[in-house]
Amino acid sequence: MNNNIQAVSIIIPVFNEVSTIKALLMAVQNADTCGLKKEIIVVDDGSTDGTRDILKKFNVVKVIFHDYNQGKGAAIRTGMKHATGDIILIQDADLEYNPSEYPLLLQPILDKKASVVYGSRFSHGRSFHKNMYYSHAIGNFLLSACTSILYFSKIEDMETGYKVMKKDVALSLNLKSSRFDIEPEITAKILKKGISIHEVPITFQPRSFHEGKKISWKDGLIALWTLIKWRLKN
């Protein structure tokens, strides 16, 4: 292990996830973080479905409440402001991503092979997963392809919810986005700085809109514009 890295801050943006938040937090608490001290930061982004009542019962979790819904990006930015760990790991609250795979995400950084690691849902030729909307799979593929072209760096899964990086990298990004456009902004700014993104294959259990999925095709268009905007902007 890199002796200079002692802790990982796991930032969990949450909005109306009453059916999954308890199981997710238990999974995160039990997850292997390769010997690193674990700081769990939940940012509740104005939930109105009872999620907040559940969060108040987890004393070992640092919980920050937004007064109203501001978006995933705003929640991530709030979490980063309160993070004290040497590594930042972003974890969605919907159980699509499995915390048992933290070692896959952390080890390249601990081994000094990377300062940024993404968990890729599309590694080894996988173009989409069971139950994943075909339009989402195609959209992700096109956005990742556009990212590779615009930033001259091959990337398989720009929109992944598993983004892990050293804290100094995270703080250097000066993030501005408040909603789902946080994903392309993070990627664009990392690549524009000349920092390589190390991708590792992960498992993925997609959920449907009926189950609470929130991202839509409109967010895909916004993501594309965000990639172009940060490519052109100094």
Write up this protein.
Helix content is about 35%, strand content about 15%. The protein has a seven-stranded mixed sheet with strand order 3-2-1-4-6-5-7, with helices on both faces. Helix 5 packs parallel to helix 8 and helix 7 runs parallel beside helix 8. It has about 230 residues and is an alpha/beta fold. The protein has a single domain, classed as Spore Coat Polysaccharide Biosynthesis Protein SpsA, Chain A (Alpha-Beta Complex). The longest helix has 18 residues.
Which SSEs are present, and which pair or pack?
Elements: E1 7-14, H1 21-30, E2 37-44, H2 51-55, E3 62-65, H3 72-82, E4 87-90, H4 102-110, E5 116-120, H5 134-151, E6 163-166, H6 167-172, H7 182-192, E7 198-201, H8 217-232
Parallel strand pairs: 1-2, 1-4, 2-3, 5-7
Antiparallel strand pairs: 4-6, 5-6
Helix pairs in contact: 5-8, 7-8
Quick overview:
The protein has eight helices and seven strands. It is an alpha/beta fold and 234 residues long. The chain has one domain (7-232): Spore Coat Polysaccharide Biosynthesis Protein SpsA, Chain A (Alpha-Beta Complex), CATH 3.90.550.10.
How big is the Rg?
A: 17 Å
The CATH H-level homologous superfamily: Spore Coat Polysaccharide Biosynthesis Protein SpsA, Chain A
Poorly predicted regions are none
Strand arrangement, major sheet: 3-2-1-4-6-5-7
* Whole-number count of domains: 1
Instruction: Return the structural class.
Output: alpha/beta
* CATH C-level name: Alpha Beta
Give the fraction of residues assigned to helices: 25-40%
Query: What is the CATH fold-level name?
Result: Spore Coat Polysaccharide Biosynthesis Protein SpsA, Chain A
Number of helices: 8
Shape, principal axes of CA atoms: globular
The SSE order reads: EHEHEHEHEHEHHEH
> Mean pLDDT score, rounded?
90
